[in-house]
Specification:
CATH architecture: 3-Layer(aba) Sandwich
Number of domains: 1
Order of helices and strands: EHEHEHEHHEHEHEHEHH
Strand order of the largest sheet: 3-2-1-4-5-6-7-8
Structural class: alpha/beta
Shape: globular
CATH superfamily: NAD(P)-binding Rossmann-like Domain
Length: 210
C-alpha cells in the first residue's frame, strides 16, 4: 500500500527502510523536500512536502518529535481528513542533555490531543515504548517485547496491526489496550527511559508484559 512517513530522522528512516523492503510505496514528508532528498541515505522512496506526503497515502505515520507534533499536524488537518494517522512519538519537555523530560500533556496524551484536534482523522498510537531499532526488529531482543495499540477506530487499528506484522511483530506480541485514552499510559512509560539508560547503558530496549 501507499504509506507516508512524516519525518526522516532515525525513527522515520528505520520504518521507511523496513516497510519499503516489504514492497510498500513510501513517501517521506519533509519541511524542506529538496534538502531532505539530498541528505537521504535510505532505500528508494519519494520525497515530498508534509502536505503532499499526507495527500499521497491513506495511512500516515507521524515520526516527528512529539513536543512539536500537535501544531504541525493541526496545520495539516485538511489533507489528513479520512486518513489513518499512526503516531509513534512521545511528547516530553526538552532537556539540555537530550533525554526525555517531564510529560508535555500530563493526565492526558499527545494521541488524545491529536484525536481531539483532528476529529475526521483516525488516530492510532503504537510503537512508542521502545527504542527505534526495535520498531522494525522485535526479534533482536533477548526477550519477546510487547507492542501496544491504542485507538478509537477498530478498522484503523486493524490496518496498524497489519503494518506491525510487516515490521516483524507476531500477533501474540501485539496488545490492544482499547481506546485512544489508553495512550496516556504508554506515553507515560517514556519517563522510565533516562533511568533505564542510566542503569543499563544505551542499549536496544522495549517494554513488555509478562
Amino acid at each position: 500500500m501507499n504509506i507516508s512517513i512524516l519525518g526522516a530522522g532515525r525513527v522515520g528512516a528505520t520504518l521507511a527502510a523496513a516497510l519499503a523492503a516489504k514492497g510498500h510505496a513510501i513517501t517521506i514528508g519533509h519541511r524542506d523536500p529538496a534538502a531532505g532528498a539530498s541528505q537521504w541515505k535510505g532505500p528508494s522512496v519519494r520525497h515530498a512536502s508534509l502536505a503532499d506526503a499526507v495527500a499521497a497515502s491513506p495511512l500516515v505515520i507521524n515520526a516527528t518529535p512529539g513536543d512539536t507534533a500537535l501544531p504541525m499536524l493541526q496545520a495539516l488537518q485538511t489533507p489528513l481528513q479520512g486518513k489513518v494517522l499512526l503516531d509513534v512519538s512521545n511528547a516530553t519537555e526538552r532537556t539540555a542533555n537530550g533525554m526525555p523530560g517531564g510529560l508535555l500533556y500530563p493526565n492526558s496524551s499527545l494521541a488524545e490531543h491529536l484525536q481531539a484536534a483532528l476529529p475526521q482523522t483516525r488516530v492510532v498510537k503504537s510503537l512508542n515504548t521502545m527504542i527505534f531499532t526495535v520498531m522494525a526488529a522485535p526479534q533482536s531482543l533477548s526477550s519477546s517485547p510487547t507492542v501496544f495499540v491504542s485507538g478509537d477506530d477498530a478498522d484503523a487499528k486493524s490496518q496498524v496491526k497489519a503494518l506491525l506484522a510487516d515490521l516483524g511483530w507476531p500477533a501474540g506480541q501485539v496488545l490492544d489496550l482499547g481506546g485512544i485514552q489508553s495512550a496516556r499510559a504508554t506515553e507515560a512509560m517514556i519517563l522510565m527511559v533516562p533511568y533505564l539508560i542510566a542503569a543499563r547503558g544505551f542499549k536496544p530496549f522495549a517494554l513488555t508484559v509478562a
